[in-house]
């Protein structure tokens, strides 16, 4: 039994080591062809066709804020305070998806390189003239979170809000996507 537990522990530790070994060997290997990261590939995709109408397609930096609103135990006054704040904690690519009818854009995290596949973490659907969007954000363990987003064309920014109420406490989750690439034609 002890031998089995030692074997399982060794397998767990080496699986992490294999991933690091793969990444290190991939970076050291002399490739006969030019190599491109997924982020560079997304930039090439974004440059494919410059349209006159602004699009939400692009590479974004993501920030979040969580606010908590509640009443004190013997108070009738509501207090609001910030529970969590993360600035620029992820980079995602938002690209058009014509393959399925129920989603117009997909959200893919691009801040990790050399992955064999990149997960689709969200689906955007526009509601009216492309200014209001709904994001279905996929979390681990099958949870789907729904955010209502607005797109500010002048600032190239997406801002989303989701609220949860539990008893007398209301949590407000705010996501901000700031476009990093492509910038408006004057900024490139």
Written overview of the protein:
This protein has a single domain (38-181), classed as Porin, CATH 2.40.160. It has 2 helices and 8 strands; from the N terminus they run ααββββββββ. The protein has helices at 2-28, 38-46; strands spanning 58-71, 78-96, 105-109, 122-128, 132-138, 144-152, 157-166, 169-181. Helix content is 19%, strand content 45%. The chain starts with a helix and ends in a 7-residue tail after the last strand. With 188 residues, the chain is of the alpha+beta class. The longest helix has 27 residues, at 2-28.
CATH topology: Porin
Task: Note the gap between the termini.
Answer: 63 Å
Order of helices and strands: HHEEEEEEEE
CATH class: Mainly Beta
The structural class is alpha+beta
Strand content: 35-45%
What is the helical fraction, as a range of percent?
Answer: 10-25%
Largest sheet: 8 strands, antiparallel, barrel
Task: Supply the key terms.
188 residues; Porin; 8-stranded antiparallel barrel; 2 helices; 8 strands; globular
Topology:
Layout: H1 2-28, H2 38-46, E1 58-71, E2 78-96, E3 105-109, E4 122-128, E5 132-138, E6 144-152, E7 157-166, E8 169-181
Antiparallel strand pairs: 1-2, 1-8, 2-3, 3-4, 4-5, 5-6, 6-7, 7-8
What is the structure about, briefly put?
By secondary structure, the protein is an alpha+beta fold. It is built from 2 helices and 8 strands. β4 (122-128) and β5 (132-138) form a beta hairpin.
